[in-house]
Design the sequence.
């Protein structure tokens, strides 16, 4: 159940709402309770002051030693309130009179009884008259009472008035508030959970749709894409990123299919030649030694070509997998270029092609010498192969700023502009302009792909600088070591 994102979002949303509601209810209850307490204290002070005013007004009308008690009785009668109790004491804390002694006091204050208030409670309250907060909460009767003590003076004597107000109505009101919160909060959480689940489900509906669509996409329909309802939000960005991934996968699958098809085509030709030549040779046992030598020569040439294709395929496969071992060391590019030119002269002489070097000295480089040699050989072999008889091939090596620049230029017919973007594809040959012939040794169209990988493996790059009717130039840039 918790594996669902919608359920987890709903639970988190409900939990947050619950915390907010509980905090809000607690704060509201606290503020309301404090406000009620402050209003109760203010009410006690007002009642006590009104009692004192009436007490002082009744004193002149009463004579004798019990004049204060008579004045207090008159004040109690005049200020009789429900749930309010008056206690009139002398300065020693002895109770002289209470509103419970009045007629019908019990009937009008049925939950106030005198037996539940002992003298020590009143003495404790009386002792608060000199303090800054002469209030005290005591328990008696059927509930809790708030008491306030106020000093009075009459006939040169000091008295203490204690006003008690029942907190039962306030407790009932606060209880109703608590019960309301206890009933409202669960209902609110239920609606919040339902609403949260609905919103989570609606918000994640595009994700479910994308997941359903993604499950239907396979190698057979990589051209399908996810729908993007809003490209500006997070889910839209997710769908766009996934579609871009599908674009890369589709391009990779297409290259792989084309690679396999081209590899099969390239391997089928030499295999067919080997098989046909051997069958023809074996079908006639009376062949002359010269015919056998010619057949073996054809078999050797095709075997070499087949071995070269297999080696190139193995190199590219390991390079794509990142498993080709690279052994870098320090060597000089100028020496390597001169050595490669010497090895390429035999190919150039066969076609009467002139090799023209332009190599700067002291070009120290750090890399895999065998791979860089293969880079040079592939570019020179490609240039010689597609340069007409009597043409010219130039190899230029120089340092430019913080990099080495290698240019291989031929005087061939050039590559058509519409085919130039594809020249680094595997097994691609611009057959219309550079058709493979039997005399040039033929190739599988892997040389430039391997050369580009070697340049990139050394943090450089290989590109086509120019190609027109006057010739073609390939440029390699390699990083020069820091001094």
Sequence:
């Amino acid at each position: 159940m918790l594996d669902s994102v919608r359920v987890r979002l709903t639970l988190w949303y409900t939990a947050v709402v619950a915390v907010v509601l509980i905090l809000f209810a607690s704060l509201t209850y606290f503020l309301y309770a404090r406000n009620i307490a402050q209003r109760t204290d203010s009410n006690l002070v007002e009642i006590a002051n009104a009692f004192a005013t009436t007490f002082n007004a009744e004193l002149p009308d009463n004579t004798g030693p019990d004049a204060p008690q008579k004045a207090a009785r008159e004040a109690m009668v005049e200020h009789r309130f429900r749930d309010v109790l008056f206690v009139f004491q002398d300065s020693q804390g002895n109770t002289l009179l209470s509103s419970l002694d009045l007629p019908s006091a019990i009937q009008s204050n049925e939950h106030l009884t005198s037996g539940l208030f002992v003298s020590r409670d009143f003495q404790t309250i009386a002792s608060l008259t000199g303090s800054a907060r002469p209030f005290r909460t005591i328990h008696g009767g059927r509930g809790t009472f708030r008491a306030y003590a106020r000093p009075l003076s009459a006939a040169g004597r000091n008295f203490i008035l204690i006003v008690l107000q029942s907190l039962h109505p306030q407790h009932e009101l606060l209880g109703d508030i608590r019960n309301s919160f206890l009933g409202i909060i669960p209902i609110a959480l239920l609606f919040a959970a339902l609403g949260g689940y609905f919103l989570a489900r609606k918000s994640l509906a595009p994700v479910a749709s994308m997941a359903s669509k993604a499950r239907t996409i396979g190698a057979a329909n990589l051209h399908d894409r996810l729908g993007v309802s809003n490209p500006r939000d997070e889910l839209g960005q997710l769908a766009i990123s996934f579609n871009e991934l599908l674009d890369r996968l589709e391009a990779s699958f297409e290259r792989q299919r084309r690679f396999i098809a081209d590899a099969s085509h390239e391997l089928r030709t030499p295999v067919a030649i080997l098989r046909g030549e051997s069958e023809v040779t074996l079908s006639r046992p009376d062949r002359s030694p010269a015919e056998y030598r010619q057949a073996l020569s054809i078999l050797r040439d095709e075997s070499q070509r087949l071995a070269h294709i297999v080696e190139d395929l193995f190199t590219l496969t390991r390079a794509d997998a990142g498993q080709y071992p690279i052994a870098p060391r320090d060597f000089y590019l100028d020496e390597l270029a001169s050595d490669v030119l010497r090895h390429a002269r035999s190919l150039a002489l066969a076609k009467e092609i002139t090799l023209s070097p332009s190599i700067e000295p002291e070009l120290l480089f750090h890399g895999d010498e065998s791979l860089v040699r293969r880079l040079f050989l592939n570019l020179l072999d490609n240039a010689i192969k597609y340069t007409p008889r009597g043409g010219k091939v130039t190899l230029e090596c120089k340092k430019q700023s913080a990099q080495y620049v290698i240019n291989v230029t031929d005087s061939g017919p050039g590559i058509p502009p519409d085919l130039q973007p594809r020249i680094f594809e595997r097994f691609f040959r611009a057959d219309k302009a550079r058709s493979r012939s039997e005399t040039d040794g033929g190739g599988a169209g892997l040389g430039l792909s391997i050369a580009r990988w070697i340049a990139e493996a050394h943090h450089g790059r290989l590109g086509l600088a120019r190609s027109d009717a006057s010739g073609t130039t390939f440029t390699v840039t390699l990083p020069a070591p820091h001094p």
In short: DSSP finds eleven helices and twelve strands in the chain.
